[in-house]
TrEMBL record:
Magnesium found in the keyword field: yes
Protein name: HAD-IA family hydrolase
InterPro entries: HAD-like_hydrolase_sf, HAD-like_sf, HAD-SF_hydro_IA, HAD_2, HAD_sf, PGP-like_dom2
Source organism of the structure: Catenovulum sediminis
Keyword terms of this UniProt record: Carbohydrate metabolism, Hydrolase, Magnesium, Metal-binding
Highest taxon in the source lineage: Bacteria
Entry keyword Repressor: no
GO molecular function: hydrolase activity
Amino acid sequence: MCTKTVTKPKAILFDLDGTLLDTAKDLGETLNLILKKLDLPAVSYDDYRPVASHGAMGLLKLGLGDNIKAYDIEILRKEFLSTYQANINLHTRFFDGMRECLKQLQQDQLRWGVVTNKPEFLTTQLLAHYPEFSLSGANISGDTLPVRKPDPAPLTHACKLMDIDAKDCWYIGDAQRDIEAGNRAGMTTLVANWGYTYDPIPVSEWQADYIIEHPLEIIDKYK
């Protein structure tokens, strides 16, 4: 982890799943619905939660295991997405402290936005359930541009929409690709260690500027 001097940002960008919203149970239960149709055993919450940030493909690989080559993974991916869309906000919620964090950012006149790898049709549908996102300065999804994270382009595109220089922006996420994208964009990067941070590479080796354990630490960092 770096020891960069903290400077107050002009904007903060967030990953969505595992950073702003706890979507793991809706994603994991979608996986289990697919597995049930295939007469395969369900995956427990403890097993699917750490993989939730890896999306449909990551979860399908987890659930299918050694059986994965026996199926058309692209067909299953599309079925996963349509099933998830129908159940997108049954159990999802803000992480504890995140609503308060976003409210404080507004009070401090700090702009904020979302950069996620989630497909746009799902991002739009999910965010509509939460009034807070009407205040977001940019909502960039995995298919907004031809590339997605860990490419830095979605982050720099969000900055352009918000009229903010990337060096004056923080990016917060719970996956290594988030930190890589933020670093490549020249942003200050923070690991949301309350999220789905499972990865073969330890969080301490992701080259983030900071690792934080609770959303309200974001406020503490720049105050």
